Automatic annotation (TrEMBL):
Xref: InterPro entries: BtrH_N, DUF4872
Domain Butirosin biosynthesis protein H N-terminal, residue spans: 14-142
Domain DUF4872: start-end pairs: 155-324
Protein name: BtrH N-terminal domain-containing protein
Domain of life: Bacteria
Sections of the chain in a coiled coil: none
Length: 335
């Protein structure tokens, strides 16, 4: 059995921030999950639907692995990413750093992992790997999936080789914290303003605050969008609240990130953003509950209520991001 020593195998709420936490704590940089998410400018929104899709998709974060790239750029980390179509090379890309004493991040399809209870294909899943033997790999996944877990090498190989939406070519990555890396507190304002600008000025109407407004209009028609409302609507609500997001389509994580920031930086803009995202997180949970009720009862009135809430959320989040975007014009006043 080959394992990396002194691994802090804490599972967190979201898969990518869980893996990032494992890799960075091993480098001596211990940041909370909300801080990792916020410094990675992870918050976003997408409403996606097409004829090829069985049911519309609501997403609350940037696309898989973008958060990792953002975080590395923000904190000046050395990010080494390896991809290949060769399973043999892919395995060597993982075992080499582990043999040298370093954990590795993997992007894969969670469907093939032995310990996953919900067998749904999702190729944007991220885990940290810190050990292996002839039969099993030792991983760290979210708290919901068990934290420190094991899966067969056969299942891991299938998960890494999977193709389809969001899939990567056996992607693995390592992070190194250089000696001259900036203080995380000093990088809060650039990370917050970058996230705000992207949210306020999306290139298409499916994204950002415009996407939430669009979702508010489209969700009212969801009973006509499916032949299986009692399956599809509760599943959509479950994805909004429980699918590794920390609830409320990541608004809980961003609320907590902004709360941490207000304890480090004295800014009325931060306090405004934190207050509005506290309100938004609660409303997202309420909207998810209404969508689930609509499916269970096949009653469109619940979808009308959810649509109204989403309209309110578009306004609330736009106002929050407008306040946060003004951080750059206010010099930082560190507490």
């Amino acid at each position: 059995m080959t394992t990396v020593r002194d691994i802090d195998a804490r599972g967190a709420q979201h898969c990518e921030t869980t893996a990032l936490g494992v890799l960075l704590r091993h480098q001596g940089l211990d940041l909370s999950e909300p801080m990792l998410f916020g410094l990675g400018s992870g918050l976003s929104f997408i409403y996606w639907d097409s004829k090829a899709m069985g049911f519309p998709f609501l997403g609350g974060r940037v696309k898989p692995f973008e958060l990792t790239g953002n975080l590395a750029a923000t904190l000046g980390l050395e990010l080494e990413v390896r991809e290949t179509t060769s399973p043999r090379k892919a395995w060597g890309n993982v075992t080499a750093p582990i043999d040298a004493g370093h954990p590795v991040g993997l992007q894969l399809d969670s469907y093939h992992l032995d310990y996953f209870g919900a067998k749904v294909h999702f190729a944007g899943h991220v885990v940290a790997m810190y050990g292996y033997d002839d039969h099993e790999a030792h991983l760290v996944d979210t708290e919901q999936q068990g934290g420190a877990v094991v899966t067969s090498l056969t299942g891991l190989a299938k998960a890494r080789a999977a193709r389809g939406p969001m899939a990567a070519r056996h992607r693995s990555f390592t992070l190194t914290v250089p000696g001259d890396a900036p203080s995380p507190a000093d990088r809060i304002i650039p990370a917050v303003t970058a996230c705000a600008e992207a949210f306020l000025h999306p290139p298409i109407a499916n994204l950002g605050h415009r996407g939430i407004e669009k979702a508010g209009k489209r969700v009212r028609t969801w009973l006509q969008r499916t032949d299986h409302p009692q399956r599809d609507l509760p599943q959509a609500a479950l994805l909004m609240e429980k699918a590794g997001t920390g609830g409320a389509l990541f608004r809980n994580l961003y609320r907590d990130f902004l709360g941490e920031c207000t304890r480090l930086i004295d800014s009325s803009h931060l306090r405004t953003g934190h207050g509005l995202y506290t309100e938004a997180a609660a409303l997202w949970t309420e909207a998810a509950a209404l969508i689930a009720k609509a499916g269970e009862s096949v009653d469109a009135r619940y979808l009308d209520q959810a649509g109204t809430l989403l309209g309110d959320l578009s306004r609330i989040e736009r106002e929050a991001m407008e306040a946060l975007s003004r951080l750059s014009s206010q010099g930082p006043a560190m507490r």
